[in-house]
Amino acid sequence: MSDLRELYQQVILDHNKNPRNFHELPEATKKVEGYNPLCGDHYTIYLDVDGETIRDVGFTGSGCAISKSSASVMTQTIKGKSKEEAERLFQVFHKLVTGEPGDTSTVELGRLAAFSGVSEFPARVKCATLAWHTMRGALEGKEVISTE
Amino acid sequence: MPEATVARTAHPDPSLTLGMTATYDVERIRRDFPILSRSVHGKPLVYLDNAATTQKPNAVIDRIVRYYREENANVHRGVHYLSEIATSAYENVRTTVKKTINARSEKEIVFNGGTTEGINLIAYAWGRKNVAAGDEIIISAIEHHSDIVPWQMLCQATGATLRIIPVSDEGELLLDDYAKLLSPRTKLVAVGHASNALGTINPVKKIAEMAHAYGAIVVIDGAQGIPHLRIDVQDIGCDFYTFSAHKVYGPTGSGVLYGKEALLEAMPPYEGGGDMILSVSFEKTTYNALPYKFEAGTPDIAGVIAMGAALEYVASIGVENIAAHEHDLLLYATKRLQEIDQLRIIGTAAHKAAVISFVLEGVHPHDIGTILDQEGIAIRTGHHCAQPLMLRYNIPATGRASFAMYNTREEVDALVAGIGKVLEVFG
Question: Which of A5, A41, B33, B300 has its CA 20 to 30 A from that of A135?
Answer without folding.
Answer: A5
